[in-house]
Amino acid sequence: MVARVFIDGEAGTTGLRIRERLEGRADLQLISIELARRKDPAARQGCLNGADLVILCLPDAAAREAVVLIDNPTVKVIDASTAHRVAPGWVYGFPEMSQAQRSIVAGATRVSNPGCYPTGFIALVKPLIDEGLLPETWPVTVGAVSGYSGGGRSMIAEFEDAASPDFTHAAYRIYATNLAHKHVAEMGVYTGLATAPLFTPAVGRFHQGMIVEVPLHLAALPMTPKLADLHAALSAAYADEAFVRVASLEECAATANLDPEKLNGTNMMELYVFGSDTLGQARLVAVLDNLGKGASGAAVQNLNLMLGRPEGEGLALPA
Description:
Structural class: alpha/beta
Shape: globular
CATH architecture of the largest domain: 2-Layer Sandwich
CATH topology of the largest domain: Dihydrodipicolinate Reductase, domain 2
CATH superfamily of the largest domain: Dihydrodipicolinate Reductase, domain 2
Number of domains: 2
Strand content: 15-25%
Radius of gyration: 20 Å
Order of helices and strands: EHEHEHEEHEHEHEHEEHEHEEH
Low-confidence stretches: none
Strand order of the largest sheet: 8-9-7-10-13-12-11
């Protein structure tokens, strides 16, 4: 059966990438508002209620408004905004988060796509908390750098459009210096941390890709874990996953540097355990495409689960 899919906000950065991944699929029919009726509220509401599944690629306020407009109880929704990530009644769309999460997503009618930074952070931290290696009360710090596409059209213009009044030549810059980044809430909720992590995000002069890093003083932790303990917990958590790969300890030891762009264009995420048992220190690192596993790829993966399609449909693995 062909499913009707409406991308509300398909002209945005994430919406365009999702549409590219879905176009040409025989099992889906992409519906859009006619150009002449783009500003017609009735036309938009008709598409929202006439689809089998809606993907919202909108600012938070507009996403909440769109959900209110949906009165057809059979319509399934994936929200790519921040609006519903910790909202009651919404399922968090990170299928690899636990053994049960995939089936929960598959049976849901309201799914919130994870943030790109939280995808890496949760993947690194949750298995350690689940295994008792990291206490829920531990003061965790997470640093990350993303390509500028993560900031949407306005930030893309800042880095690419010399005619923009906000154009910058910066190679790298930090932001969210008030420590109030909108991704922090989901980082805490879905890892089970009792204290919000200290999040230090940055943006670099590259279009897409990201690195998320969690440093740990192993000697200070109650269980005084070794690198092998952390690696074992991550490896067990993602042993059977197609889109999350844990690098072996041998590969980690041989890795002198990491490129944030290495997984661009894929729905993959790679996890690394760097550090020194002698020093009692570790660097846990996740690499992913902020527009792939961090956005459009995750949305397509969730769509496949919610519509009963093969989970990897339209999400080719890298060669």
